[in-house]
Amino acid sequence: MKTLTKILFCLVVLTTGRLFAQETFTPLVSENCVAFVHIDFSGVEIDKVKGTVQKAGEDILRSLGFDDGSFKSTARELSNELEKLDIVIRPTFDTITKDLGIREIAVIADMELIEQEIPFIVAIPWKDKTSKQLDTLRELLNMESEPVDFVKVGNFLVLPIADRWASPEEVVSEWADEMEPAPKSPIFDALKSVADAEIKLAAVLPEQLRAMARSGGMPPDMPSEVKGLLLFATQKIQWVSASISFHEILGEKPPKNADVLLTLKVTKNSDAVQLRGMLEQLIDFGVTTMRFEMERDHNMAFQPPPLFFQFIRGYLRTLLPDAEDDTLKFRLKGQGGQTVVAVAGVGTALLLPAVQAAREAARRMQCVNHLKMITLAIHNYHDVNSALPPLYSVDKNGKPLHSWRVLLLPYMEQQALYELIRHDEPWDSEYNSQFHDWVVPYYSCPTNPLCGPGEGCTYVAVAGEAFVPAVKGREGVHTFARLEDGTSNTLAVIEVREPFCWMDPTADIELEDLAQGINADGRCGSFHPGGCNIALFDGSVRFIPNTIDTEVLQSLGDCNDGKPSWHDLW
């Protein structure tokens, strides 16, 4: 039931209304009920939720120390993803709430059904609904292609969720006939502990789980510290309740106990104190183990300082529950979650050098992949045309029309864009100018902060060497056979710091530009620390340091200077 799972997820994400009517589903809760989730989305405002998520995401980005460029691009990606979700969610949500009049649902797990391999059921109030509305619901859930259907139980529609059953409706029908409601179930005691939080969940530990723990039914390789905690918890915990409140995030007055995220009810006061102490010991054990494993791994590029592990231990301890009588309550410490964000920011600051290094390493690798895709496209072009692409195409008068980058589009999954361009007109004609802002992902280095609309390309070739203009009568001279120094010793593409329009046929460098070195006075270079990436005609990509000898660099750019391998020269 993948469609239903997606809809449930969307409803949970969007829920901002109060949950006060879980009693609606009392007729479906028996003494064998082990888990109950109630969702009420009658007060949902999609636009408000979008704004809240966007703001929360931006706050997190700021706390993580993102630079301005990364912050803006990531925030823009978040906004785009939210718009995509809006397109998917809003029509479905309107159908559920307006056309079908559904305002709340419940997800229920019952041991009687679990033993019949039905993990849980979804219950929807369905009083005074029409057959047409039922057909709409089936269509919404894409149930025409699903073998499972609803079961009518009193004033509810019940949908069994089971992958292995061909017709679990029969099992649910028999269960409903024999099931006795339990209005005094511990499930409802658990729900009372979360007051008016927006999302409610309650669960009790079934006797089967307690028996399994007592009989030693745990993995033999489980650490004794973890095994002891689980054994104690399964014998002492009576029920668990969880809640999520959006009030603080939305800037509204929170309900009572809205900061309580999770409550554990144990048998007596002393058990609560002991369980909290065991959790603290487990944190110490986990952090110590993590530090030991990381220090033992000598292949790690970055070893966190000792202060980092002290911070992790201290932060995790702030998440420990408060022992209150016979309960343990996990709370969101700090108004509006500001403490959590602040602590996350401090922790990231400790690792900021490593985070920045990892981020740049990822961007540099992406740059490498872009260059590999370009050289692969060059080879594919050569296979089809028995020649390398010309430096640029020309009109009948020899005037440049389009760069080699335009000619490679069909060989890098950009056939549609290639066909839109008018190849008999110059690249900057009134018609073709509309494509200047188009983003061809393989032509831009992700590290370069100067890239923008119309100027996003950072990869060039050496004009007049391996790539020559498509002058009439010379179409056949630019082939791999012309690279007398060999493909592994000839530069195909190199980075430049100043981006340009990817369609520009005059943007490539001359051999003399290589004499200026990398990241020096000339055009060649990048914003990668220490050097730039280059692609050779054999398809390999190398990182060239700023200290490379300019004669070696020029030798790479010259396709037939007769000098030995550049590895020997450098």
Please tell me about this protein's structure:
The chain is of the alpha+beta class and 570 residues long. The protein has a domain at 364-569. It is 39% helix and 16% strand. It is built from 17 helices and 16 strands. The chain has helices at 2-14, 46-63, 68-99, 111-114, 131-140, 169-178, 186-192, 207-214, 224-236, 269-296, 306-318, 338-350, 352-385, 404-407, 415-420, 550-557, 566-569, and strands at 33-40, 104-110, 120-125, 151-153, 156-161, 199-204, 237-244, 260-266, 322-324, 327-331, 392-394, 400-403, 457-460, 491-500, 531-536, 541-545. The strands form three sheets. The protein has a ten-stranded antiparallel beta sheet, sandwiched between helices. A four-stranded antiparallel beta sheet has the order 13-14-15-16. A hairpin with a 2-residue loop joins β9 and β10 (327-331). The longest helix has 34 residues, at 352-385. The radius of gyration is 32 Å and the shape is elongated. Mean pLDDT is 79; it is low at 1-21 and 335-339.
